[in-house]
From TrEMBL:
SUPFAM superfamilies: P-loop containing nucleoside triphosphate hydrolases. PANTHER family: PROTEIN, PUTATIVE, EXPRESSED-RELATED, SULFOTRANSFERASE. Residues 143-153 have a biased composition (Basic and acidic residues). The lineage of its organism: Eukaryota, Viridiplantae, Streptophyta, Embryophyta, Tracheophyta. Gene3D superfamilies: P-loop containing nucleotide triphosphate hydrolases (3.40.50.300). Residues 134-153 are annotated as: Disordered. This is Sulfotransferase.
Length: 153
């Protein structure tokens, strides 16, 4: 981090629901060279079995050695993850809020304003699992022009 050592790394967590634009938002954040968001780390059940496994996972993420770690960029200014409401955060909210406050983690609440559009997106995504596959697999989000053109065939 040499030239960036006087700039502290800011931690964040994006709290959202599926089909609320969180994938797009995370892609936007990751397009900045000094921001790194690590996706839905709690989509794995073993990482959210209980509060101990949740805190252990958060410690691994937020206690990285920022002076020596090989992050995506030597000048990482903001680092975080995406956490869906159905991935253990609500069941353990008191302990999680306490942990996030202690670590100085900023919480970004991202919700789709129009609930009907979110429901339509959920239904369309469910339909697309079988009808619109890219190279034989389902894509909830497309990340390139090539994937968009494959989806429109």
């Amino acid at each position: 981090r040499g030239e960036c050592s006087c700039t502290p790394v800011r931690f964040f967590v994006i709290v959202s629901m599926q089909r609320s634009g969180s994938g797009w938002f995370e892609t936007l954040l990751n397009s900045h060279p000094n921001i790194s968001s690590n996706g839905e780390i709690f989509n794995r059940v073993d990482r959210r079995e209980n509060i101990s496994s949740i805190l252990q996972t958060l410690d691994k993420l937020y206690n990285l050695d920022w002076l020596t770690s090989a992050a995506k960029n030597e000048c990482t200014a903001a680092f975080g993850l995406k956490w869906m409401l159905n991935q253990g955060i609500l069941e353990n909210h008191d302990d999680i809020v306490s942990y996030l406050n202690k670590k100085g983690v900023s919480v970004i609440f991202l919700f789709r304003r129009n609930t009907l559009r979110r429901v339509i997106s959920v239904l369309a995504n469910d339909y697309d699992k079988d009808a619109k596959q890219v190279n034989g697999t389902h894509k909830s989000h497309v990340h390139s022009k090539e994937e968009v053109s494959l989806m429109h065939k």
